[in-house]
Design a protein that fits this description.
Layout: H1 2-9, H2 15-50, H3 56-84, H4 90-117, H5 123-135, H6 140-162, H7 169-212, H8 222-232, E1 237-244, H9 247-254, H10 256-273, E2 278-283, E3 286-291, E4 301-305, E5 313-323, H11 328-349
Antiparallel strand pairs: 1-3, 1-5, 2-3, 4-5
Length: 363
């Protein structure tokens, strides 16, 4: 039972869920403050226009409405600035919500005190607390503490007037309990909604990644190349087409699982050779690198030792071409030129003059 209450009152919330809840809280305060400010401004204007005699009570009422208007506008402005900030600070948002709650609750207690003194109902207080319960989520223990505090302060205030004879104490306690239950349920609902939203966002991001990246090497794929092409037009571009030498022999000798490991290690080596470049798995054991900066590696060959094949070095042949494509067609012509150059390199490196097929056995 204690553990259940602990989880209920002190729920564990991950960082992404917190960010989502904070964003929704700020948005709620932004819109609620704006609506409340508009309503209060219209009410204030109507009172000023319609009232012909100003007395002390009326001036106090006008001051009260003006205070509420200023508070709502201030909350709206702060929430607006927070919305512009992509990285919301959780502590700042929590402090903002608490201060907003306290200021509006204290104002509603003061207004309700005046209403009670005139024999009127405590509509302002209950309206403010209802808005907070419905639209501003708090952690269960925080919301409970705040609600107990404001309901207790109001009751003590009314008790100091006439021992709270003008209200039904039992009903008042019931309303307080309902408000506390409401703010707890609101928080739990917000947490579940935020968790589902975060999960959906992560799934969408993963799906987006998979549509533009090769599953095995995590490099960009041909679809990504088609989408990236437009952004490379008009800029100096170097294209490097890279092929793993004797890759079929690696698969036949060590198996396709080792071959996959070689592809993954090759992808990491290429990203290290061409930092900041667009790296693609072009197909099979062929890779493409597009670079709009100075080419970081322009040799026709490269070798490295892969942990999955300790008995031999992994050899790469590289074909290189550069130009300033004026449209996507010219960019793909540039890639074709790099591919043609790659096969020239492979014919040369595989020739007897260069060492032929014995080259693959070098440690």
């Amino acid at each position: 039972m204690i553990q259940l209450l602990k989880r209920f009152y002190f729920p564990k919330i991950d960082l992404e869920t917190k960010k989502n809840i904070d964003s929704e809280s700020v948005n709620s305060i932004f819109y609620i403050s704006f609506i409340a400010a508009v309503v209060e401004a219209i009410t204030l204007l109507l009172v000023v226009i319609t009232e012909k005699q100003y007395n002390r009570q009326l001036l106090i009422s006008l001051g009260s409405m003006l205070f509420c208007l200023i508070t709502c506008l201030t909350g709206n402005i702060i929430a607006y600035r927070m919305r512009k900030n992509a990285a919301l600070n959780h502590k700042s948002v929590t402090l903002f919500k608490i201060v907003y709650f306290v200021v509006l609750s204290v104002w509603s207690i003061w207004v309700s005190y005046r209403q009670y003194s005139r024999g009127e109902q405590l509509l302002t207080f209950f309206a403010v607390e209802l808005i907070i319960v419905c639209f501003i989520p708090f952690r269960p223990w925080v919301g409970t503490a705040l609600m107990v505090g404001v309901y207790g302060i109001l009751y003590a205030t009314l008790y100091s007037i006439d021992a709270a004879k003008g209200i039904n104490t039992v009903n008042y306690i019931v309303l307080a309990c309902i408000s506390i239950a409401g703010i707890i349920v609101r928080c739990q609902s917000q947490i579940r909604t935020a968790e589902k939203t975060v999960l959906l966002q992560k799934n969408n991001e993963a799906l987006e990644f998979l549509t533009r990246h090769d599953v095995l090497t995590k490099l960009r794929n041909r679809k990504a190349l088609d989408e990236d092409a437009a952004g490379l037009v008009g800029s100096p571009v170097s294209a490097s087409m890279i092929d793993i030498d004797y890759f079929k022999e690696i698969n036949d000798t060590y198996g396709h699982t080792v071959g996959d490991d070689v592809l993954k290690e090759t992808a990491r080596q290429i990203e290290a050779l061409y930092p900041g470049s667009l790296c693609y798995r072009y197909g099979g054991d062929e890779f493409l690198v597009l670079n709009t900066l100075a080419n970081t590696y322009d040799s026709e060959s490269y070798s490295f030792q892969a942990s999955c094949v300790p008995s031999r070095k992994i050899l790469l042949s590289i074909g290189f071409a550069e130009g300033v494509p004026q449209d996507s067609c010219q960019l793909f012509d540039l890639i074709a030129a790099a591919d043609a150059r790659l096969y020239e390199v492979k014919r040369k490196t595989h020739s007897p003059e260069f060492g032929g097929h014995d080259r693959r056995r070098r440690p």
